[in-house]
Design a protein that fits this description.
By secondary structure, the chain is of the alpha+beta class. It has helices at 4-18, 39-46, 130-135, 148-157, 162-167, 177-186, 200-219; strands at residues 23-28, 34-36, 51-57, 60-65, 70-74, 79-84, 99-105, 110-115, 121-125, 261-265, 268-272. It is built from seven helices and eleven strands. Helix 1 packs parallel to helix 7, helix 4 crosses helix 7 (200-219) and helix 6 crosses helix 7. It binds a DNA duplex through loops.
DNA sequence: CACTGAGCCTGCTAGC
DNA sequence: TGCTAGCAGGCTCAGT
């Protein structure tokens, strides 16, 4: 599932390819893929517009148009954007059933949106809607402003279980289930640990883990477990770096050998090592 | 405010 | 081997 590094890779791939292109037509294959506004209003806003840039906010792809509005695309679980230099009749025959939308450009190229599970969303945001959209998202973890101190203030501003807090896009933008499990494992924090009660050393470890994991994944063009592909159809290479995500409960911890455990937290499967990531009980003495 | 659960979807897999 | 029930989960919304 695409998280920050995967979405960023898609944007970096597509930006040079789409800049300056004029949208000549939009085709919609599944009505719920278009989130807003109506198809008529979407066409009015988008067809004839020229693309200024492709960028990312949280896990959202922003295609900024010449009218200063933007097409936003959320890949959710299985969405894929694929650029094609020419309109090809048999573009991807076996994938055709999952083609949900197509942007055609005036030079004959096109941008295809595939999405097996139909969770992905395309929308148009008028210029005056973009500030509110941006304000709805929290800190970008790869922004230099995301320091260990910033993370500490975020964690202490809430009294919540740490994993759901890290997944909350309005608090920290771009983290998903894979990278949160990996970051908690590396920083030895139990996913249910109360965010306001994490000590300084663990906060520093968590900050370092988040930045390191995301930077490495980005350098390797993302993690491909099944569906994820860049804007040119290339898989990422980060999957070999995952330590615990995807392992089954009972599997020996890669660090200490204890059996890993699985919990469902906020409707998301969570894998962790009960020995490396102990849940701090009420009488627990502070750990060094 | 924090948390829970339903709903959206369909391919894959575990278990019979 | 073949079938089916349940799992996978990002996000929104309603309810406690």
């Amino acid at each position: 599932m695409p998280e920050l590094p995967e979405v960023e890779t898609v944007c970096r791939t597509l930006d040079p390819l789409l800049r300056g292109k004029t949208i000549s037509a939009f085709w919609l294959g599944w009505h719920r893929t278009l989130e807003r506004p109506t198809l008529d209003l979407f066409n009015t806003a988008v067809v004839g517009a020229t693309i200024e840039s492709v960028s990312r906010r949280a896990k959202l792809i922003l295609i900024t148009l010449s009218n200063c509005g933007a097409v936003t695309i959320h890949l959710r679980m299985t969405g894929e954007l694929l650029f094609r230099p020419t309109s090809d009749a048999d573009r991807n025959a076996e994938r055709e059933p999952y083609l949900r939308a197509v942007f055609s450009f005036s030079d004959g190229s096109e941008l295809l949106f595939y999405d097996t599970r139909k969770f992905g969303k395309i929308a148009y945001r008028a210029p005056n809607e973009l500030a509110a959209l941006d304000a709805g998202y929290g800190s970008e973890p790869l922004d230099p402003a995301f320091t260990s101190e910033r993370l500490a203030s975020i964690l202490r501003a809430h009294r919540r279980q740490t994993k759901p807090l890290l997944l909350d896009q309005s608090v920290i933008a771009g983290l998903g289930n894979i990278y949160v499990d990996e970051a908690l494992f590396r920083s030895r924090i139990h996913p249910l640990q109360l965010s306001s009660e994490i000590d300084d050393a663990h906060i520093r470890a968590l900050h370092a883990a988040i930045v390191e994991i995301l930077s490495t994944a980005l350098a390797l063009h993302g993690t491909t477990l099944r569906d994820y592909r860049s804007g040119l159809g290339e898989p990422g290479q980060n999957q070999s770096r995952l330590l615990v995500y995807g392992l089954k409960p009972g599997t020996p911890c890669p660090v200490c050998g204890s059996p890993l455990e699985r919990l469902v937290i906020g409707q998301r499967g969570s894998i962790f090592c009960p020995n490396c990531q102990p849940f701090p009980g009420p009488n627990d003495t502070p750990r060094r």
